[in-house]
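Study this:
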Amino acid sequence: MRALLIAGVGFLVVACGSPAGQNFFSSPTGPDGSGGAPQGGRSGQAGSAARGGSAQGGGSAGAPSGNCAAACAGIGSCEGDTCVIDCSASGTCPTQVKCPPGVPCRVVCGAMSSCSSGVDCTQASRCDIQCTGMSSCPNGVLCAGSQCNVECATEGSCNSQITCSAQNCQIHCNSKGACSGKVLCAQGSNSCDVECNADSACGSGVESDASATTTVACGGSIACPAPVTCGGATCGVTCGMNSCSSGVCCNAQKCDVQGKDNMCAH
């Protein structure tokens, strides 16, 4: 009789313990695409969201946030707290792509000449603009918020002006002839990072009014043929062979210009 009672108690302990413990530490994918805490480990922010808290940056882990779902309706789809506007199919997004206000926004211009009327991400809280189709984003990119990343990743992409007034601007023109329009980190920016590391990239020059730090890399042959200008606290400009043919003007408090003389040296 005593053996039967012990066996019954052991069965109840097993049935009531293990599954709940496994689910507690297995959080779904978070809004940044990463998984939750490993099973049996200490959970971080994503794990806390899975238990009813909220993940950093917005909605609950693994599901669209309420803010994104409302703002992005009829425009794109939500990945976590980010509104994603996909213009990868041929013929999509013939009018200006405009990100909704108050939420992070990602625009994917993946088809040839996609986003043909430009991209406006000035009202989003954070911007990620991917001009990956041949000759995509031909009519300008505008962005603001806490951070703006613009990738002009194919030949001839972004051939009108890019204007970034985000706190942190990252603009990458690392394909042949990319960013033939002016690249501008406008007033209001704190930091500006521009890469023109391909032949004939950044054809109409680079201008940075960022208040803190600017870095410009003109590593491609005949890159940055128009003037490169910068101010703020610090500015570093690197000019490769046959690049920066119109010169560099650094008016920052601290300048580091390599490959060319600083035309505006104090």
Q: What stands out?
A: The radius of gyration is 25 Å. The longest strand covers residues 104-109. The mean pLDDT is 81.
